[in-house]
Batch of 4 targets.
Target 1
Amino acid sequence: MVTAQDAFDYMAKVFKKEEAKAYKKTIVITYNVAGPGGGTWQATIENGEFKVQPGETISPVTATVNYIDAECFYKLVTGEMNGIKGYATGKIKFKGSPSVLQTVGKLFPGKKKAGLI
């Protein structure tokens, strides 16, 4: 069973720090992952750094993403599932700017683009 922590560990491994330095504003994304291995976390991208913490204590939030389970979250961040398909099938729901989520998604390449498969 994969967990949300597995997804965050992957994200930390492939994070494009140099590209993230181009963002001038702080980005805060709340991740709500339902089911076993899930929970609520917030990820912050600021000054080229990526940090994750449990809970929901940082505001303002740039975007909130809800996943039906940890496997869905893991597949999305590793590139095994397309975000548009996940949204269209109801596995992913979000609040906030879709363009911010797409832009942030480029900072975390899927396994193929990261050279991991």
Target 2
Amino acid sequence: MAAQESGAAAPAPSEVAQLRKEAAELRALLEKLEKRIDQIESAASGSQTGAPAANAVPPAAAPAAVAAKAPEAPAAATVAPPTGVAGLLAGTTLNVLLDTYYEYNFNAPIGRVNLLRAYDVSSNLFSLNQAVLMLENAPNPDAGKRWGVRVDLQWGQATESLQGNVVNEPRPDVYRNIFQAYGTYVAPIGRGLTVDFGKWASSLGLEGNYTQDQLNYSRSFLFNFLPFYHMGVRANYAFSDQFSMHYWVINGTNQTEAYNGFKDESVGFTWQPAKPLSWTFNYYRGQEHPDEVYYPNGAPAGIINPPTQQGVAFEPIGSPATGKLNIIDSYLTWQVSKALSFGLEGDWVIQRLYTNSAPARVDGGAIYGHYQFTPKFGLAARAEYVQDHGGMFSGITQDLKEATLTADYKLADNLLLRWEWRRDLSNRPYFYTPTLNSLKVGQTTAGLGVVWWFGGKQSPW
């Protein structure tokens, strides 16, 4: 009666037994699937750690639905190296410098000429000292790149001061605007032997070419006298973080092309006994006398069918001078604190025309100091004394002194203003005045330099 009232018939015993059997089979299948999932997850975890899981089931043995849900190890991210032009220029920096100034000489010299200045050569003129375009792709041995290239192109007044003097080179116009151009290879020898081939700025003397890296705007007498550049091959090896040595074989001093076949040499070291202190010593030996005379405007009438070098006539010298040039150069820098630093330089230069000739000699030294009052404002001073025996530097035998005070202010990270006062003195009348052939024992200048630079290369340049 109850069953009839509910409207449903009770299942037969055979049906109940069948349902229980199917439930047991389903439970067994679920247990089996759970075990396989655990095995697949364990196998995947073992493949990520590099160790196979015990009794791991290959993914192919799992049902398709389960394999699709199994976790997979993430693929390693790979970046293809750049190719074509992008690959060729990877790591290359393009750098630009513009160095300008206005300076006034209180002697009011004839021709507005500041004597014995390397760069600030003009008085009472708005002047372009140098405009530079520099490209560098430096070596990076730690990343497996052992080669590099650097080219510095330069225009302006400093170009005439630095290079292309017909006294030094037979064909200066060919190389006048190429201040530096060299390739580098870091040989896998010990800590790495760095070899450069080409034309590079000389490292004789404490001062360098680029104004933003110097303490003063004007350059010292010693900078003006020592070599500006060399052409040849050089090697440098760092025996430790504190000590390194160099060796050069070059055409000569300020000679991209030389007037003779003699190869100058230099050897030296840099020692940094403590992080704030560094000492550099250089010994240079050369032979700077020509063994031929070039005639860029054509040979004199008396020379018949002269030999030529790429169209430039020349004549060999019968008994050329062979006297040697010797330079001992040493300088010390000391970073006393983050704000205060000092520099000290000493040089001794001797040259003979012939082996037994009386020598001409230049010796002297300079002391530097700099204090950075704020991140934007600093003050630098330099004092220098040079003896010119035989007129090798200035043209006459004299003793020279100079004192320089420079204040610099950074308008921006790459924009520098420099105000400078300088007094040059001699023990003989030497410096120009407004009157021809009327000379003074001194000259005083005051000026403002404005320097812009930008690019990927970090200072010093």
Target 3
Amino acid sequence: MKKSPQISIIIALYKESAYFYEAVAQCLQLDYPNFEILIGVDRGVKLNFRNPKIRVLETGLLRTGPAEKRDIGIIRSKAEYIAFLDDDSYPRRDWLKKAMNIFNKRPEIAAVGGPGLTPPMDGFRQQITGAILSTFWGTGPYAYRFVQKPERLVDDYPAYNLIARRKDLVSVGGFDNKFYGGEDTALCIKLVTAGKKILYHPEVVVYHHRRHFPEGYLAQVGNVGMHRGYFVKKYPSTSLRLSYFMPLFGIVATILLLLLSLVFPPLIWIGVFLYVLGIADAIKVSNWKVAMILPVCIYLSHLSYAYNFTKGLLFIKHLER
């Protein structure tokens, strides 16, 4: 039997939390014989792990973003493969085994990503966020990042669930940016530009705890929108796409529909029809309590995204910290 190549799991720690310790504990239960866990932390952060599989790596600075912490891990790792997790996500037990099966069968693939599913224990307000992310009305053609969809080649994928050959990461210089959100977009562009292929596969699964709706999630999606608007200018090859403008167009269209309905009231039935479509979409991935309010929540999500997208597109000149 071929020896299982070593994999370094890199977790960029933002702050200690129950989710972070859950991530570490679940990693230690992985059904794979040869891995280590590298935790990137800022200077002065003390973690007391005694397991030999775990190494804590300080960046040497008081405040760094996820890209810088992950780059420290890439540099310090001697493994053949690097697996990235967020500090609020945890892997399914077969995560690494499924990924390695893909790498073994498809040597042309440089990186593999998979869905970040909503954990079943997440509370009601987190389930709302999970439903927004998992529906077409919430995230359009990018819902596959949050639910299991057919496999496909991609040119941009989040690092809450991304596994790559270390030699390919090193060859493009790692992340090498200071974005706090969107740092993975910059990495993927470098990989794709270098001729590397990134595969999404539905069986490479992690569970990603959701932000609470509305305050936590709307702040998060606003940050996503701001970076994406800025990336339209900085990385047009993957960000200058109609899909990233759709929430903004949707908000404008909704406002126009409301104004026109004041003149011609029957137009309001278009809004009712769209609301019902939103419920029908939501019921596929959530319970009826979430589904009934989800269209309103999606509208608020698009509003936060669109406002910050416009801000990033038109007014922000420099977004790296």
Target 4
Amino acid sequence: MCGRYNVQGRIAPIVSKLFDTQFTVETNTNFSPSQLASTIIADERGYQQMNANWGIKPNWSKKLIINAQSETVANKPTFRQAFQHQRCLVPCNGWYEWRTEDGKKVKYHFEHGDKLPLYMAGILFLHEMTELVTLTTQPNGKCSQYHKRMPVIILPEDNDYWFNASTEQISPLMNAVNDDVINIKKSD
């Protein structure tokens, strides 16, 4: 789920205004794991941008971990501390999924129904180089036709709650957004 996403520089002014900070991002229509992602964090100064490499590789893992399941993130030892204290949002234009149709892989782009930025929920791991893991959940009805998971999307009106509520209190935000929030189209 969500191993590629799309971010375009044109969202920067929208994100900057929403979070009252100077957000910058370079266009990357095929953002992939291990690349440096632009994220939003909340700290004592308010909302800030923090860049992080997408993915972690714990000693016990043979591969890069880019996603954590929302249903278990609060309890898994690998993610628990970051989920409690280092939540972030990843502004983007959408994400991609592939589906086999007539024996061929077909790429689909999932975007906001009104072409606004989407805010994927994430957690940060603060090391020499900050790392990022995005959160996934069971898909809504529309997205379930393409994949068994989808990103946890935090709506703009829930941003403050995402950053400030306890891990128990934010469980309602960890579910799929309504079908009408997401538009799906074939991609090149």
